[in-house]
Amino acid sequence: MTSAPRTRRLRGAALAMVARCFTAFLGGYALTAIVATLIARLLPIARVEATVWAMIPAFLFYAVVGLWCFHEPRLSRVAGWVWGATIVAGGAVWLLGTRP
Asked: How many helices (H) and strands (E) does the chain have?
């Protein structure tokens, strides 16, 4: 039979891992998509070419963000950087608007 403090400790660790996975998978995807959109918006070439050139490094960027989310020991730092950067980059895309 397990003791109550050990069970609570395991639940806390499990919830932290779920939050880390949520941040790595969904937050990393959102950050990568917004950054790729921002890069495509800022490149001074045709829309189609800008989209392709922005998406090529996006695959590597998503992998790096995902790996960093599990490498960093502090969940608060991971969530703050990933979700904060997503909000900032999303705001920049929103302020820039569509390409003419």
From this structure: 4, 0
Residue-wise pLDDT tens for the chain (100 aa)?
Answer: 555 666 666 788 889 899 999 999 999 999 999 999 999 999 999 999 999 999 999 999 999 999 999 999 999 999 999 999 999 999 999 999 887 7
Other CB atoms within a 10 A radius of the CB of residue 91 amount to 11
Nearest to 32 by CA among 10, 3, 64, 8: 64
CA pair distance 51, 33, nearest whole angstrom: 11
> Distance between CA atoms of 62 and 69, rounded to whole angstroms?
11
Q: Give the integer Cα–Cα distance in Å for 46 and 37.
A: 14
